[in-house]
């Protein structure tokens, strides 16, 4: 169900762009993405024997974790702009839109909470198993 919903949202997004007279942009984007996918697939097939898969997943997990922190900041900001969440401004607080960092207590609190949950998750995933610690 989730996959179908995402596909449906993507189709609606492209249909809206297409109906605004930007059909050439949709086609150019699709062709560009296809070319990039072909190049990535070829590189992965060519060099996958030498690809350190553990390291690949470690870096991709870190990238997704950073993305989660950024997205929670942007989500809180969007909900505040829509009036669904209160806004408690931090005077002189940092504002880095690229990182989803806005000077509100709620946004920064959500990002810190998300970062802590992710840090605990990474720590739990990387600690040695009990059988490894007990081995003589």
Supply the number of helical segments: 5
Largest sheet descriptor: none
- Overall strand count: 0
Strand content: under 5%
Approximately how much helix is present in the residues? over 70%
Q: Tell me the series of helices and strands, N- to C-terminal.
A: HHHHH
Q: Shape from CA axes?
A: flat
Chain-averaged pLDDT: 90
Q: Structural class of the helices, strands and pairings?
A: mainly alpha
Q: What is the terminal-to-terminal distance?
A: 49 Å
* Rg calc: 21 Å
Task: Report low-confidence residues grouped into runs of 5 or more.
Answer: none
Task: Characterize this entry briefly.
This protein has 136 residues and is mainly alpha-helical.
Structure description:
The chain has 136 residues and is mainly α. The chain contains five helices and no strands. The mean pLDDT is 90.
Describe the SSE topology.
Elements lengths: L1 H18 L3 H25 L5 H29 L23 H22 L3 H5 L2
Helix pairs in contact: 1-2, 3-4
Primary descriptors:
136 residues; mainly alpha; flat
């Amino acid at each position: 169900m989730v996959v179908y919903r995402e596909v449906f949202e993507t189709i609606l997004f492209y249909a809206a762009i297409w109906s605004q007279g930007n059909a050439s942009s949709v086609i150019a984007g699709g062709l560009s993405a296809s070319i990039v996918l072909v190049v990535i697939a070829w590189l992965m097939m060519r060099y996958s024997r030498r690809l350190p898969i553990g390291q690949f997943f470690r870096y991709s997990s870190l990238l997704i974790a950073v993305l989660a922190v950024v997205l929670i900041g942007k989500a809180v900001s969007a909900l505040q702009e829509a009036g669904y969440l209160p806004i408690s401004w931090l005077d002189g607080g940092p504002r880095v839109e690229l990182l989803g960092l806005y000077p509100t207590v709620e946004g920064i609190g959500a990002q810190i909470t998300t970062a802590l949950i992710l840090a605990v998750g990474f720590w739990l995933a990387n600690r040695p198993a009990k059988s490894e610690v007990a081995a003589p």
